[in-house]
Amino acid sequence: MSSPLTLSTERLILRQWQISDAEPFAQMSADPKVMNMLLGPIDAQASAAMQQKIMAQILENGWGFWALALKETQEFIGFTGLNRPNAELPFSPCVEIGWRLAFAHWGKGYATEAAKAALAFGFNHLKLTEIVAFTALSNHPSQAVMQRLGMQREPQNFMHPKVPAGHPLQAHCLYRLSQSAWRREG
Question: Could you tell me the pTM of the whole model?
Fold first, then answer.
């Protein structure tokens, strides 16, 4: 078990989750706009279970999908970080980078800013050789973040095993970033 780490950027704090994050996270998880590319909204119980799972992973590893807060106000606005997917993906094992922000905070560069801090942590402290990101083919905003991070899209798409067969979000694209490419861009 590791001590949870906190990361900081110019405008954001990536930290362990707090009890006070439960309500804004549940609201975010129930928002159809936020959850549109994630199989739809989830209820407060499912949101709480997800929060507990994320918190446990951070306690176990010292890192994970950190709660994301505005530095100026301490307001919880979503999460960003690194994760080992538990789905059996065509490119497993891997470490992914991911993010989810409350709709009111979209379009402000927070996802990219926080993800850059998570990438630096993954490459500098965890000594990862590669970090991946994946999303539904129609999730163009997340793909734009991946591109701003310097990630390269793989030519082959894949069917996400946790998305029901035939669902419009089943087809996913994969982006990769190697430590060496990240250092060249950095």
Answer: 0.94
